[in-house]
Amino acid sequence: MGTSHILTLEPQYLKIVLSTGFEHYEKGEVFRDVFRSLFGTGVFNSDGEMWKFHRSITRPFFTRDRISDFEIFDRHADLVIFKLKERFSQGFAVNVQDLLSRYTMDTATEFLFGQDVKSLSGELPYPSTYKGCTPPHVHPSDKFTSAFNRAQEYSYPHGFFAKAWRLVEFWEDKVAIQREITNEFIDPLIHTALRKKRDAKEVYEVDKDDGTLLDHLVQQTDDFDVIRDEALNILLAGRDTTAALTTFVVTMLAEHPDFLARLRKDVLDTLGPNGKVNPENLREMKYLRAVLNETLRLYPSVPWNVRCSKNSVVWPALDGGKQIYIPGRTQIHYLPWLMHRRKDLWGPDAEEFDPDRFLDERVKKYLVPNPFIFLPFNAGPRICLGQQFAYNEMSTIIARLVQAFKEISLDMNSNPEAKPPAAWALGPGRRAVEKVWVKSDITAYANGGVWVKMQEADME
């Protein structure tokens, strides 16, 4: 479609693109056009001075004190545990992808906007094979979350058509329609924040512990569209990526009961059966962090990303090869999903799930000398601002789950559509052993969900 593309899985080149040669690369005009309906001019879809502006107004919000407030995570985790026990008591499996997406949606909207959409208050879906239930009651939050999900789903195919995507959606922009629905929730909150600022008749001070993202944004600008775009960008990052990771963590624990037992011991030795996660004890649970990192390695939440060369550049030769000439305005695609599984970068067991690789000698052998082989949060000046926020949120919910439940098992018969194609079992790599059907739009997800049953831990 009139654009040039190159794909690389080489960490040496990604170091140049994302870090040491950062000034020569950007998201680019094609990317910005393709995702404008979804991201607007937010931080994920801007370059140059606009990107610097968005980065500068968002960074102060992610202070150590602010992201270390575990109360929001824990309060919503209480409802997750309640929902699980309630459904298991009825004898049904639970789609943890759906449940954890609700959890991250509620924590993210409360953290960012000061008001959550209360999606956890809605009824969980029953297995598709269960014919004895009435359709679940439509909760008010479903309108927002469904539109939020569809906006991303409709955006992804735009990338295949580049600037010609409008010819495919000539009569209507499907993403823009969904954005109108999500705006119904976000817009009143922005109006309230701006009115609060106007009523103060001056830039009001926001307490770093109590102020929301909106409070911080309106201190920097009165531009309604800029505030809304940035808020939605951060919401997408704060909800979908963490939901994807925690879903795959539960999947891996279900498939590896020995790792689950070890993780439970790590958590119970530190927290006991009822203790809460805080910044101090979180540092002690090294195996929990290793489980999260290993899941991020095999199942990075953003499997694919792209940059664009601003001008012609030459990449250095590698391993006796030749230099590579990259013309200006070339789309540079990179796939952490594939790079994280390269055996020459991670060792002969690269396709196996083994959290110990982040604890034993393999760290010094592979990761320490070449940190760009691990890019779950990107790298360089555009590294994810919410990285520690994500670790805190994910650690809280996973710790709470293993405190409450001692066994996890997959029950993929609850939804036959969730099973991978039979041909996968005959293929190479991890496809041959996958129990869930992994797909991706902007973020990774399990087609049809991940259905599990859990056995409650003994009261201690």
Automatic annotation (TrEMBL):
Protein name stated in the entry: Cytochrome P450
